[in-house]
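#structure-requests
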Amino acid sequence: MLSTAEILKKVRELEIRSKKLTNHIFTGEYHSAFKGRGMSFREVREYAAGDDIRFIDWNLSARFNHPFSKLFEEERELTVILLIDISASSLFGTLHALKKEIIIEICAVLAFSAINNNDKIGAIFFTDRIEKYIPPKKGRQHALYIVREMLTMEPKRKDTQISQAIRFFNNTIRNKSIAFLLSDFLDDKFEDALKVAGKKHDITGIKIYDRMDMQMPELGMLEIQDAETGEILWVDTEDFLVRKNYQEEFFKSTEYCKNAFLKSGSDLLHIRTDEDYVKVLKKFFIGRNRMA
């Protein structure tokens, strides 16, 4: 358990690092990746040469026997929601950092990127239930509050149920929003919920995994405990078939996750605990800019 002084120090470190990345690496890229994707209706006026015919108001035009165009404007203010998996499996990591630590760093960067662009930022912390909901607001103090909660929250449950978080998000946030879903995705029952939410919101999944999630090391007989269920098993890690089945389960889970996001029209990033998440995020933002 971190002391108050340690928490404040960690929050400050995350703020400094996040702001540096936001200002020097993601300058303009976050803005371009998401701005302009939401358009709000402004007014109707008489059709003028050069107007896009797709925006002609046919009902009004028929009524007055004269063409009218609908005018739209870019929604300058976005709402960004972080869906953060804080189940027990996030406390695993064998190389550079725990999954939880990587998730916190990425969320801090996304939060300060949003604040830097004068967007609202909110958060949903979940296990197999909603542990905490922080409604979206603007401002540095609000971003710092979210970061403090990430560092100090003690979940009441250990299991994962991603569909609960997605449905809560979809039912709570009425306007189209940008959502980042951060998890190791050790769950295979969220496809339907994601498909529904993906029709209204712009969702990006960020799958955080450890090398040992994918590959079991050869260390002889090991006593292994499932962090979420508490189940204890003895496993012979020297057995080729045991290691093969373990790896196949990882790829099966990864394939389900990839297909679920693909079918919902959402993006999915993969970040390993020993990889540079900055490069992955930067490549993602640039890729979205090119598609815009």
